Amino acid sequence: MEIAEPEQQQLGRYRIERTLGAGGMGVVYLAHDTKLHRPVAIKKLRDDATSATARARIQSEAQLLARLNHSNIVQLYDVLEERDGIALVMEYVEGTTLKQWMREASPSLRDKLSLLIQLCHGLTEAHSLGIIHRDLKPDNILITRGGADGFTAKITDFGIAKSLQADESITREDHVAGTVEVMSPEQLQGYPLCPRSDLFSLGTIAYELLCGSRPFDKGDRGENGPMALAQRVVHDPHTPPQQANPDLPEPFAALLDRLLSKNPEQRPESAEQVAEALGFLRTEGSNTITGDYSETVTRLLRKPPNKRKRLLATLAGLVVLGSAGYWGWKEITKLEPQYIAVLPVQIEGEIRGGQELKSLTKTMVKQALIGSTLNLKTSALVAYEPEKASTLETQLSALRDKGATGAISAKLDCAQQRCDINIELINPANEKIINQAGFTILPLKRPESSYRISSAARELFTKKYRKETLPPPMQKDDYDTYLAIASRIENKNSFASDEASLVRLLNKYPTHPNLYRAVAWLAINLYIANNNLDFITKGLVNLERAKAHNVDQALILELEFLLKSQQENPEGLDRMIADLQALDFPSASLLTEYARLLYRKGDHKESLQIAKDASVINPTPESLYLLGINQYIQGEYEKSINTLMRCITLNPQHWSSQSLLASIFVEQGDYFKGEQVLLKIPAEQLTWYEHTNFGTIYFFQKKYKKALQSYNQALIISPDNATTLGNIADTYLSLGDHEAARETFLKLKNVTASASDAEGKKFFALSLAYLGEIDPAIKLTHALIQEYPNNTNIKYMAAQIYALAGENRSASYYIEELINQGMDREWFSLPVFSQACVSASAAVKAALCQ
Question: Which residues bind ATP (predicted)?
Fold first, then answer.
């Protein structure tokens, strides 16, 4: 397209010579500075680009560029303000764009690395000032001659860049502005950005430089449009670098994998760290760009700093780097964490030996697949038990919520004495098969078959994840003993005598990881069945023997964590998590399970913190939901809403999050919005909780009979549910049916009399108070408030009980707290609260009593 010549010939002291280029919002001119006698580039708003957004962007660019002074960033010289807009006077860079340079210059590997290092230096400067570029792409990088590398790269076009402290009110449009092919997943989803978003964009540039293609093109070169590309960037893995370029050395592939991580937390910490790693590679590889290059770099990286320096000294032409570069590279090339689940084993056909042998074969295959995951680096096994008869699609959807990055499935087609087995590694994110293997096994030769299955399943993963060797197979009788115990553990019907059998097997096979896993889960099963912590103590003692036999330290730490987390007041768990992370163990799923356990115990404050840690490492619908529900219980409504919206963005069909979101809207008094959210949930997915929420909406709309219908529907699904019974009793009181209310409170008292959890104790105290047993109700209320001081539900209960007891000042105190945190005044329209106005504070009287 031909670019029109400039209409103006002079802008202040700048004489315009010609048009360099034009974009959607501006025109760039080449001009001459008549005062300093130098060429400059002037970027001016087009006459027809007068929107507030365009003006805001160019003003923002001026403010940001004024703070930047670096050789790898185009410099701002002056700002011209005129009646028809503003213009930026910038350094004129005579050269070409990176896009043209990649196509025409045929740069060497060293030149490519030098260019990337220069970009890192420019980004480091911007990030140090709190500035994120947000549209780093080849068209926005200019290459000119000169400099230590023979050329200089300069980052330009900060038109949609933004300071981390910038006013977010400029435009919501800015929030997702940028070029799809280089935008990070979080930018495409409209999330707040940090400097690591620019590192993702840098990764797309590095990938194209080193691999010759784009990471998410999938062969269509964008023919399916930007929306399809955006979906791939957010949900699909990038094409493995060594698949795009088979000659690419592994350290480069590891670097690209880290830069292109979906989770910002898994990318390198800074552009400076990336520059150190690239500098290491450039120096070490400058004279060895052959097949020996990868081996040389790998040897150097595996040695500790002092040995590495001695090795470097013997390699001609190589410059010794400081340990900072080495450790920067070591950090950046860490393997991407894997979260692997094992799907239910499917068997078709018949096996000689009948149903018993068929069941044993299923257990054997599953344990072999689990064993394969225990022999992978930087990988964690995701605990998962699907509902019976659930489809593969449903199972993969559940695993997406858990943050699983891979799922192993096994299907067997059996004919009496032999079975053809097909093993698949599936990506839950897109439900595509990553790798697969097929072969024949003999069900009666279980140890040999198990070993072959574990070996084949391990081969489905790339070589860099595989540990060096698998443990040798057990003898047949020993293996059958182990399988019988594993089957009972899976079915939760373990025997206390199983412990002695496992100890005997451990003495014989002290390096077998499956046995240690069985020891831990046996202890947990026996503890739950017998409510006896001695089983946990014995399990921890049995794990100790692993330390004398060089068993994988991360596995044993994980199992110790699982056991200790069952204790009443476990100590040292934070230290164990830190130790696991230092060993590159993917800790997110472990933290999520621990947060869930704490939530069930009623320790919502600690559960909130653990869920927050898990969601930072790997933000999955499960970890975000746990974070959101704990925020809700702690009264942090707005934080909970934001967290749940993130969760729903990841999975719009995460019905638990939708339901909890509706609950918050109802508590805030927005009954219409709450009902609209609930109506999104399919009828077959409605639980007692959703029916109870519908009832609460109708209750506060004073549609009491309709509310009772919804509550009774909830009781059909969950008979004797304390929450629903309490709501039914409140409804009868509002209808003036005191006899029906009393009968319901009597039933509630009986249902919750032996409750040990906070929710059950809360309803027991309420039933006591409404039945006139004030003293024990007050005593239990004091205990619950002391144990759960920030729990919204406990505070609401306390307000009711104190009002019933005539302690109106105490009732008023909790009413005011709840109103201040965002609970709607309608929640205090129950008859019991009418008495609270007698001694209420001014704030409560203003809200409720006038």
Answer: 44
